[in-house]
Amino acid sequence: MTELWNGLVKAVELIISLDPEVMQIAGRSLMIAVSSTVIGSVICIPVASIIHFNRFRGKRFLVSLIQTFYSVPTVVIGLFVFVFLSNTGPLGGLGFLHTPVAIVIGQVILITPILLGLTISALSGVDRAILDTARSLGASGLQMAVLVVKEARFAVVAAVIMGFGRAISELGISLMVGGNIRGFTRVITTAISLETSKGDIELAMALGIILIFIALVVNIVMNRIQQR
Question: Total domain count for the chain?
């Protein structure tokens, strides 16, 4: 118990003193997670709108399939990304393996089902009376789509924040395709795993506290959005 308390005290000291290594790892984690979330949102919100506003055969099955992948294991995605980006893979010539770009690619794939599924659900929750009114006023298909997205904007933002939370807390992808290279691809989760195995509990706890703080901020923002 004493060791745990001492580790916690030391971890707080590292955070308060803005330890360069801790800040570097935390900053890199945020940069990668934010990049993944922005890229995923730019891709998934329009695709989710297309799925929602169009009737086609197999739509229900597609939505169910998307929702099934909400909890896909990160190591599975890491494995497929590794195979594609390795020297013998189809994209090996790009040299992305063991770089932040590889982690971003993996995280975008990871959060895509969440962004798609939750955005579709958000758009489905908009009152049909709004669509009927817009249609009666002569709105085009694009105008109605923009109107619905605008009405569902808080739920869509909540979906984006959920995607960010999933990205910044994953471990398997960052470890498998990032390589956990110090000063280059080491992020909070991989650093916690490494430092714990090395016995450096203080640094691991400091990074854990930062990760918990980020998760707390994400949850507070989500609650405020849901209240609105």
Answer: 1
